[in-house]
């Protein structure tokens, strides 16, 4: 049977659509493609609400269960798992509105906001790691920032995902340190002009040798927090002038008060003398 | 096979009849397994040779025929290593080497290298590379074979009406009829049109997967090839 280009494209499209016969969902539209399958917006007829339906290219027995175990504000909750009439597995999850991190960053948020998002992502990772789960494919496209500032980490990986080159650690075997590398890459991506301290955090997180990276995500987050508080970070032994400048900016009020006091005392000394 | 994966989901409603290429090769590569490969790749190879080496119709046919004949004689299938490339890429590169060596041999015979490649009619208007044309032709052939399988399956199990509805809608080159028009034309309720189409598409997907299963090295390559087909 000879097929024209248009007929071929149509067949590829319709045969790939999920067959929702026998489920409670009605297909609305495709909203994205992840490492393991396609995500559609769908309507749950029973509960009359919109959901995100991820249809996996091939059956991954553990993926949905794995994500369902992660009950965390920054992990999209899974509502249900199932098998379509065509044999593909799917899971329904909360339909998140908002912008992907790369688009969110295009709106030029402040440094504080950029670091806030990274910290939220890091907290989700740390939570997952404490449950023995690693992400494997952390990148801007897998982070959503909602209209009220909520942050979601999506597309939690399974063994078949190889990662995205710019964010993938050069490790033979992916583990928690590989996620730390990706978080460092994400921090680097989020900062158009990082300060030396932030650059040092990125460098430490992205070391080629996993053992030279932060030992865990909380250690990386602690360094970011220290930076925000104006404290010395672990990743960088700063030069003396930088220490003084940081001390100055951190104690500006006290220093100004001391300077004012010294000036007044100095003036009083001269007024009394003359 | 991965322990936690199962391509296409559980096959309880459509048991797989195909073994992977590696399994087939290990078992001595039956003529049926070879036929599957040649059925899927003859046209893509022919098209690739025409565009890449600017051969006319007859020469391209001869080279294609020659390639498959040589492949069978030279342990082509047993030398395939899935760790290095997909079977599709391995085959295309082998075609390229084969056609280039044939060209060099022909040049030597002419002693002056005065062979002129003929301009292919569609070469002038081609907007895709030979590699892209190979991939496109591979997809076209994959779906054509799966459609043949679907038609045969419908004939076998008395579902000719389902195939006719599917053919009238999904294979229409001109404007597609509405579901209501199809229902009237075939004297069935509109919901049946929806169900028949859903069934036929589901079966088509299964047949595409089966064709791929027989021409890939195993679960990992099948998974990658399925992503190429469906995205």
Describe this structure in words.
The complex is a heterodimer of chains A (274) and B (231). With 274 residues, chain A is α+β, with helices and mostly antiparallel strands. Chain A folds into 3 domains: 5-94, Phosphorylase Kinase, domain 1 (2-Layer Sandwich), CATH 3.30.200; 99-238, Transferase(Phosphotransferase) domain 1 (Transferase(Phosphotransferase), domain 1, Orthogonal Bundle), CATH 1.10.510; 243-274. Chain A contains 9 helices and 9 strands. The model of chain A has no long low-confidence stretch (mean pLDDT 88). Chain B is an all-alpha fold and 231 residues long. Chain B has one domain (21-230). The chains are: A alpha+beta (274), B mainly alpha (231). At the A-B interface, helix 1 and strand 4 of A face strand 1, helix 5, helix 8 and helix 9 of B. Strand 4 of chain A pairs antiparallel with strand 1 of chain B, so a sheet runs across the interface.
Brief summary of the model shown:
By secondary structure, chain A is α+β, with helices and mostly antiparallel strands. Helix content of chain A is about 40%, strand content about 20%. Chain A has a five-stranded antiparallel β-sheet with strand order 1-2-3-6-5. A three-stranded antiparallel β-sheet of chain A has the order 7-8-9.
Spell out the blueprint of helices and strands.
The complex is a heterodimer of chains A (274) and B (231).
Chain A: H1 5-16, E1 25-33, E2 37-44, E3 49-56, E4 58-60, H2 63-68, E5 78-83, E6 89-94, E7 99-100, H3 101-106, H4 111-130, E8 143-145, E9 151-153, H5 176-190, H6 196-205, H7 217-229, H8 240-250, H9 252-273
Antiparallel strand pairs in A: 1-2, 2-3, 3-6, 5-6, 7-8, 8-9
Chain B: E1 5-7, H1 21-26, H2 31-53, H3 57-73, H4 87-110, H5 130-156, H6 160-170, H7 179-186, H8 190-213, H9 219-230
Helix pairs in contact in B: 2-3, 2-4, 2-5, 5-6, 5-8, 6-8, 7-8
């Amino acid at each position: 049977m000879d097929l024209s280009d248009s007929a071929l494209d149509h067949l590829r499209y319709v045969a790939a659509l999920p067959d929702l016969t026998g489920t409670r969902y009605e297909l609305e539209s495709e909203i994205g493609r992840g490492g393991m399958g396609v995500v559609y917006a769908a309507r749950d007829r029973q509960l009359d609400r919109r959901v995100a339906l991820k249809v996996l290219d091939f059956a991954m027995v553990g993926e949905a269960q794995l994500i369902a175990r992660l009950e965390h504000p920054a992990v999209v909750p899974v509502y249900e798992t199932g098998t379509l009439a065509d044999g593909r597995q799917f899971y329904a999850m909360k339909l998140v509105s908002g912008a992907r991190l790369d688009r969110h960053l295009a709106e030029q948020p402040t440094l504080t906001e950029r670091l806030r998002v990274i910290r939220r992502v890091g907290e989700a990772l740390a939570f997952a790691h404490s449950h023995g789960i690693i992400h494997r494919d952390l990148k801007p496209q897998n982070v959503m920032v909602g209209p009220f500032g909520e942050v979601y980490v999506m597309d939690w990986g399974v063994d078949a995902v190889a990662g995205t080159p710019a964010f993938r650690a050069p490790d033979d075997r992916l583990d928690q340190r590989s996620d730390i590398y990706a978080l460092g890459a994400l921090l680097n991506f989020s900062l158009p002009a990082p300060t030396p301290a932030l650059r040092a955090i990125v460098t430490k997180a992205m070391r080629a040798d996993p053992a030279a990276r932060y030992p865990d995500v909380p250690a990386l987050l602690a360094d970011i927090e220290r930076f925000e508080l104006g404290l010395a970070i672990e990743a960088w032994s700063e030069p003396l002038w930088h220490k003084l400048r940081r001390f100055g900016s951190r104690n500006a009020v006290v220093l100004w008060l001391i300077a004012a006091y010294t000036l007044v005392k100095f003036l009083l000394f001269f007024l009394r003398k003359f | 096979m991965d322990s936690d994966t199962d391509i296409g989901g559980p096959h309880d409603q459509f048991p797989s009849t195909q073994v992977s290429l590696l399994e087939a090769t290990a078992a001595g590569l039956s003529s049926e397994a070879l036929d599957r490969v040649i059925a899927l790749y003859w046209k893509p190879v022919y098209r690739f040779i025409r565009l890449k080496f600017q051969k006319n119709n007859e020469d391209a046919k001869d080279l294609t025929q020659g390639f498959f004949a040589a492949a069978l004689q030279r342990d082509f299938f047993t030398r395939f290593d899935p760790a290095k490339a997909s079977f599709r890429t391995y085959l295309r590169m082998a075609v390229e080497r084969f056609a280039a060596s044939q060209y060099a041999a022909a040049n030597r015979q002419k002693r002056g290298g005065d062979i002129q490649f003929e301009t292919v009619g569609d070469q002038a208007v081609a907007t895709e590379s030979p590699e892209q044309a190979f991939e496109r032709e591979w997809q076209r052939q994959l779906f054509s074979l799966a459609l043949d399988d679907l038609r045969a399956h419908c004939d076998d199990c008395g579902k000719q009406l389902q195939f006719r509805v599917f053919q009238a809608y999904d294979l229409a080159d001109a404007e597609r009829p509405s579901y209501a028009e199809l229902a009237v034309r075939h004297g069935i309720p509109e919901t049946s049109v929806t169900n028949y189409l859903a069934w036929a598409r589901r079966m088509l997907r299964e047949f595409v997967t089966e064709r791929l299963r027989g021409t890939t090295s195993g679960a990992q390559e099948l998974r990658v090839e399925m992503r190429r087909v469906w995205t």
